[in-house]
Q: What sequence folds into this?
């Protein structure tokens, strides 16, 4: 059996690992849309791109409650892409949510899926729904 990792800050998640992390970093959920410089530990700089999904402050039902974070560790930057199409006035946020995203290597567009929502493809800006996938 692996040890429970106790080094994850402010988390109630039960995560199991045999070793401690090599490095840690945090990205604020309060960053505005667009590209921002971030401090990236040396251990992560070999990664070209990592797509993350995070909550995003939504002041109204027609505002994005989540964002895709395009982390480029080698460049020391993150691009915040609020998901303007996925709003509480169009979806039952909390019952439905985005769980996974990847970049299509041929088109460069982000495709994803979720809980109780169909797979989707985003437009070139990465923030608006282009089409539902079959």
A:
């Amino acid at each position: 059996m692996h040890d429970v990792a106790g080094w994850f800050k402010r988390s109630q998640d039960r995560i199991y690992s045999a070793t401690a992390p090599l490095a840690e970093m945090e990205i604020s959920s309060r960053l505005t849309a667009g590209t921002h410089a971030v401090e990236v530990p040396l251990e992560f700089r070999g990664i070209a791109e990592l797509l993350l999904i995070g909550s995003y402050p939504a002041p109204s039902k027609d505002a994005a409650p989540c964002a895709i974070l395009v982390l480029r560790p080698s460049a020391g930057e993150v691009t915040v892409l609020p998901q303007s199409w996925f709003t509480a006035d169009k979806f039952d946020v909390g019952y439905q949510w985005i769980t996974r995203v990847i970049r299509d290597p041929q088109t460069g567009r982000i495709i994803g899926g979720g809980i109780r929502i169909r797979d989707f493809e985003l437009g070139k800006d990465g923030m608006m729904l282009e089409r539902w996938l079959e």
